[in-house]
Amino acid sequence: RSRVSLARCRGMASSSSPSAAAGASAAARVGVVQMTSEAASSGVKFLCFPEVFSFIGSKDGESIKIAEPLDGPIMQRYCSLAKESSMWLSLGGFQEKGPDDSHQYNTHVLIDDSGEIRSSYRKIHLFDVDVPGNMVYKESRFTTAGDTVVAVDSPFGRLGLTVCYDLRFPELYQCLRFKHQAQVLLVPSAFTKVTGEAHWEILLRARAIETQCYVIAAAQAGKHNEKRESYGDSIIIDPWGTVIARLPDRLSTGFAVADIDLSKVEAVRTKMPISELRRRTNE
Ligand SMILES: O=C(O)CNC(=O)[C@H](CS)NC(=O)CCC(=O)C(=O)O
User: Boundaries of each CN hydrolase domain copy (predicted)?
Assistant: First the structure.
């Protein structure tokens, strides 16, 4: 059994200026450090933050200016934080410096409790969508898609790394479960208000049920600036599809805690052996 947690804090959910030191807003940084220490005192060993945890731009392309490589100053700070608090961190949606000056990667970074980057995953499915009644998003204009599925061992089970809009592509999660043997799926997100209200929790529970994995989904929430608002309860779901922890959308700050018990993953899979009964209807 291991204690895991989702967190969100004020400052994270608001627009920050690219001129702020090291790209991350001061408010977000203070909030993240505070959240981490509060979670540590509750016995949490693994803390997950949502997509765009260190910066949300208010203008198109703004985050290109603050994009950094994974060995840059922003990530070094988070590595120190992980080490000081002896905690693993999942940081979804980091603006990683891209292949050229006009593109970044949307990268989910996993840091271990000794402060080393264990793994990173570049978002594969980019959000080029005309949201009904809202606005047209074109993430691919400034972001280059990743092309590699990433799963990694941890003390909390084998983790599958994904980001936000990936959630709508179940084949990625099937691949994480059946090809990469994932036991816990991570889905840090910044869903739009319109699509989040309609689909967020349903999609997450479906992914948990059909893969028989824990799902840990840290969500941005609230109004970030004039143009952008996110929706989502941050939730942890067990491999039977039950929500076992929730940080409601209406709270701008806080964390939610659950215990992960990998024997539950095995129990669900043994009783309902979908990996053996699977027919490759898709191939
Ligand atoms: O651009 C940034 O600042 C960070 N990236 C995001 O917030 C991304 C791309 S705009 N958002 C989503 O993927 C929302 C998905 C969604 O809402 C859905 O699938 O319904």
Answer: 9-262
Q: How far apart are CA 22 and CA 193, in angstroms?
A: 29
Q: Which of 14, 108, 127, 230 to mutate to test the pocket of ligand 1 (most atoms within 8 A of CB)?
A: 127
Select which of 9, 45, 48, 51 is catalytic.
Answer: 51
The answer to whether residue 282 sits within a structural domain is: no
Instruction: Decide: 195 in ligand 1 pocket, CB within 6 A.
Output: yes
Question: pTM of whole model > 0.90?
Answer: yes
Q: How does pLDDT run across 127-179, given as a tens digit for each residue?
A: 999 999 888 999 999 999 999 999 999 999 999 999 999 999 999 999 999 99
- Look at the chain and report how many structural domains it folds into: 1
pLDDT more than 90, % of the chain: 79
Tell me whether strands 184-186 and 157-161 are parallel, antiparallel or unpaired. Answer: parallel
| CB-facing half-sphere around the CA of 82: CA atoms within 13 A | 24
What ipTM goes with this model? 0.91
